[in-house]
Amino acid sequence: MKVRITTPCRIHLSLIDENGYTGRVDGGIGLMLDKPNVVFEASNSASEFQIECNHYYRESIDVINEKASKVFKMFNISNKNFHFNLEKYYPSHVGLGSKTQLSLAIATAITLLKNKEITVCNLTKLVERGGTSGIGWRGFEKGGFVLDAGHEFGMGKEKETFLPSSASNSADPALTILRYPIPEHWRFVIIIPNVKKGAYGDEEVSIFQKYAPIPREEVNEVSHQILMKILPGIIKQNLTCFGEGLKRIQKIGFKKIEISLQHEIVKNLLSFLENYGVKGYAMSSFGPSVIGITESDSEAEELRNAVKKFLKPDNEHVYISRPNNTGAKIEFFECE
């Protein structure tokens, strides 16, 4: 038996609270799109353990080995007959959550092939993801727009200091408050500028430590924009309302810090989207990926062409994506 898992792509629109005065920290909003995506295949009828992938994805082999080993150990599974094939991957550390999607695809594939019952939340904990943001793991499970409430904060709590997911392995996956379908007619132009990758590892940890806590009044405004603009906008399928809140939170809170650390091309791209009249836009996570949201295929195509012209030679990765409201697609096949 072979299982193929096609994941969505995660857009992290904003963290909410890097202050912690309420006794909770992190929290965030984000949504899932149909591409770019991870396509991961696994079978357990091979003659020996093997990992296969395109040479462009070689960086992912360590991730596959690491995450698979955690699952094998947890369930006392031998790896000797497993064959993994990473058929499709997308760039890591550009703000699109590829590592979480790949990690969950690996863990899900192994547990399905061995008939092990475990929730996506517990799989997320096992592969050490979701320690700051809860968008990627819930989006893998169900797709859509996700609002999470982060973690308990303080001495002896889930989190005692401000840290990114990569350094928050002991925290449980962030708590989901709300998951809502993304309007199906919305289209998302994803732009990955040809610049330095977003912060990760030690650099990302140092940014959290340097800039948190964020001023309380900015945290409160981010929360207010989400409650009174972004949530009503997505529920009523009103992109103008949604976009007004989204654009405002690019200028406050932790997102303001993330953008301030970007290459000038990213900042200029956000200004371009504003001047172009895009109703909603945002930088995803620590960047450098940026999205512009439209309400039709034709609008998206026009925006894509305008962005490519603006970026000139630096336009290798510009996608038009649709909402993913279902989560990862799981297919089973008989081995040849």
Keyword list:
336 residues, 10 helices, 5-stranded mixed beta sheet, 5-stranded antiparallel beta sheet, Ribosomal Protein S5, domain 2
Secondary structural class: alpha+beta
Oligomeric grouping of the chains: single chain
- Overall mean confidence score, pLDDT: 93
The parts where pLDDT drops under 50 for at least 5 residues are none
Rg computed from alpha carbons, rounded to a whole number of angstroms: 20 Å
Q: What topology, given as strand order, has the largest sheet?
A: 5-6-4-1-14
If helices are DSSP runs of H or I spanning 4 or more residues, what is the number of helices? Answer: 10
- In the CATH hierarchy, the architecture is 2-Layer Sandwich
CATH level-1 class: Alpha Beta
Taken from the alpha-carbon principal axes, the silhouette is globular
Main sheet record:
5 strands, mixed
What is the number of domains? Answer: 1
| Order of SSEs | EEEEEHEHHHEEEEHHHHHEEHEE
- Alpha-carbon distance between the termini? 9 Å
Helix content: 25-40%
* CATH fold description: Ribosomal Protein S5, domain 2
Number of strands: 14
* Share of residues in strands: 15-25%
